[in-house]
Amino acid sequence: MIRALALSLCLATPALADFPETVRDHILPGYAGLATATQDLADVSAQSCDPQDLRPAYHAAFDAWMGVQHLRFGPVEQGGLGLAIAYWPDPKGSGRRAQMAILTGDADVLEPARFAEQSVAARGLFALERLLYPNAELPADPCPLIRATTADLARIAGVVYAGWEDGYAETLLTAGEAGNTTYLTRPEARQALFTQLATALEFTDDTRLGRPLGSFTRPRPERAEALASGRPLRNILLSLQAQRAMVETLTPDAPHTIAAFDHAIAVGEALDDPLLAGVAEPESRLKVEILQQAIEALRQTVLSELGPELDVGIGFNAADGD
Amino acid sequence: MRLSLIAALTTTVFAAPALAATPAEVAQTYTDIAAAGYGDSLATAKALQTAVDALIAAPSDETLQAAKDAWIAARVPYQQTEVYRFGNAVVDDWEGRVNAWPLDEGLIDYVDNSYGQSDENPLSTLNVIAHPAFTLSGAEVDASALTPAFISETLHEVDGIEANVASGYHAIEFLLWGQDLNGTGPGAGDRPASDYAQGEDCTNDNCDRRAEYLKAATDLLITDLEYMVAQWEDGGEAREATLADPTAALSAMLTGMGSLSYGELAGERMRLGVMLNDPEEEHDCFSDNTHNSHYYDGLGIRNVYTGSYTRVDGSVVSGPSLSELVAEADSGVDAQLKAELDASVAALGAVKSAAEDGLAYDQMLAVGNAEGEALIMGAVDALVTQTASINRAVTAMGLSAAFEGSDSLDNPSAVFQ
Which helix (H) or strand (E) holds B134? Predict the structure, then answer.
């Protein structure tokens, strides 16, 4: 398999960077890292259910997820695996409801095959966060559920990585070749990747920042992503860094896009507000709004420079709904 | 910079004189179908209004059932217009007034104790029907008169929260059916007709205000639909804008088809429910009419492509189609897309048939219901598959430069540039 991949990479294109490089240097290592980090987390939880022991491995797994969470196509879209890794936002509180029912219910549900059938909102990183950073005393010993959740995460990350390594990478790399019914042309492969970038930036803008910002008169700091574990700004920065790295694998020739990423990352790094709690006060709110504006400007640059450079426009994406 | 071979070929094809449909004719068909679809939506909503008036005048099992039947009939044409929403700013800006979903129904009326307070919505258990005044951010809000203006200007999306849906089909649905407390088991909402009985027979209190609310919400739906009909009639703003720029209209048509197929219907409304196993994720969750809503969404997508809409009275509005234009650009893409649209309508039809045979949509969402999951995911897969071909049609028509995908929502004018 590795050899086959390498061969198609050599034949694929004379360019310094193009979508085969994205597969090789960004996507496959990203998912391999997620598989490793989630397995480490499962291993730690097999030893201890003490949140203090588990939190470093939880953060490492979440960091690894931020390296690939902008890729909402391919194996993560099969059977909703991406949602089962990270279900957020959850405006109706489905996750808490379903998870508490499992926590206080029949232990048979924790058996791996049964657990995999449970609501995606009750599984994954955000479900684990509720167990490791509870906002109230949990109604039952969470240890068995912590172990089921981390094992499920590791299993899913393994399935996703295997899905890329054993099939989807080839599907993308053979775009435009006879018999490839997913990507009929090479531009279709580039468009799929470009769409992920543009959509992910929109998500960071509208959701990671837009939800806590709310409106000026009604800020919603409590709606920031992964707030309990202190990750709102960290997730934004990691996501920007991952997408910047992805652009570098796609083309060597998008200087304005890279500069816009660097600017947004610098604005974010200078923001001394890891929880984005400052949205509630006018002066500190302004700083969060400046970050949002930098990301909006970045997205415009991606559309106006990177799109034409790759000779594609944005395609339909999973975020088209409301 | 790479040159797209397909785009180059397309330009050549487009430049050649042809006898087939022109973009202007296709845009004309699109506006004709919109006018007919919204016209039918208005006519069936007026029938609902008549039935609601009869229910309020004389609440009984019969008048309640007649109102429910009228609501279900009103959904048939409306859902077929949903494909107009994405890509048409005038529709997208408006549709939240008539079809907003999901809703925290406890805002409007009494709910079961199991309902619980939403973490994100302090007004999710307000029950405005029981409260002629309430407090919002420290200020008193006068809810003594439940008028269309109060519903649309004050209560709808109150507190800036989208789940505070006070108007439209789903608010009316809740007032007719009540909560479906059967989870993923059989059965829909079971509101008694006596919830509208005046005087001693009134159940669940405040029947006068409940009737006032239902009447106001139904009247408001009529007003809102009248606005949209006017947009697409001769001289209407949406119609004129569409006809003035047929190329932009083609983008809007394909944007609507693709966005509804993938992100909205396949993703938000169907797959997510399966992944959450949550009956609250059912689109028509009070009435258990979800199978029909999804089916007619799918039919509407195909209508736009084939340039043909069968009206409520059985007559057909049709004309030169987008399909003909795409075929001219790339007959392979057209043939595949037509087959895929037929396949998605068939897959949504299988969901509809199963529901009509007794396996309601919320039952399909139950944990471990393999048959239900297979039915829903079959339709999801068909919708995702056709989205790729819709994308190819965009490319084949040389529209990619003007096409902004999801940007049509944030910045609808981009589509018309």
Answer: strand B133-136
ipTM of the complex: 0.87
- Closest Cα in chain B to A221: B120
Are residues A112 and A84 both part of a single domain? yes
Output the domain CATH number for residue A288: 1.20.120
Cβ-Cβ pairs closer than 8 A, A with B, add up to 124
Q: How far is B201 from chain A (nearest CA, A)?
A: 35
CB atoms A320 and B367 under 8 Å? no
Please indicate, yes or no, if residue A178 is contained in any of the structural domains: no
Q: Is residue A97 part of a domain?
A: yes
Domain of residue A115, residue span = 2-10+18-173
**Which of A115, A316, A317 to probe the B interface (max B CBs under 10 A)?**
A316
Same domain, A32 and A91: yes
Could you read off the pLDDT tens digit of each residue along chain A, which spans 322 residues?
444 444 444 444 445 789 999 999 999 999 999 999 999 999 999 999 999 999 999 999 999 999 999 999 999 998 889 999 999 999 888 899 899 999 999 999 999 999 999 999 999 999 999 999 998 999 999 999 999 999 999 999 999 999 999 999 999 999 999 999 999 999 999 999 999 999 999 999 999 999 999 999 899 999 999 999 999 999 999 999 999 999 999 999 999 999 999 999 999 999 999 999 999 999 999 999 999 999 999 999 999 999 999 999 888 887 766 5
Residues of chain A with Cβ-Cβ distance to B262 below 8 Å are: 316-318, 320
In a domain, A75, yes or no: yes
Residue range(s) defining the domain that contains residue B28 = 5-416
Does A87 map to a domain? yes
| Chain A neighbors of B274, CB-CB under 8 A | 80
Contact (CB<8Å) B275/A191? no
> Residue B344 is part of a domain; what is its CATH number?
1.20.1420.20
- Residue A168 and residue A215 in one domain: no
Domain end marker among A140, A173, A206: A173
* Together in a domain, A169 and A194: no
Pairwise pLDDT comparison (B223 vs B409), residue with the higher score? B223
Pair A80, A222 in one domain: no
Global pTM reads: 0.90
Nearest to A121 among B276, B403, B407 (CB): B276
Give the end of a domain, one of A173, A200, A219: A173
Cross-chain residue pair A321–B259, CB shorter than 8 Å: yes
Judging contacts by C-beta atoms under 8 Å, the chain B residues touching residue A223 are 120
The beta-carbon neighbor of B258 closest among A198, A311, A316 is A316
Domains contained in chain A, number? 2
Q: Which residues of chain B does A83 touch, with a Cβ-Cβ cutoff of 8 Å?
A: 272, 275
User: How many domains, chain B?
Assistant: 1
How far apart are the CA of A114 and the nearest CA of chain B, in angstroms?
8
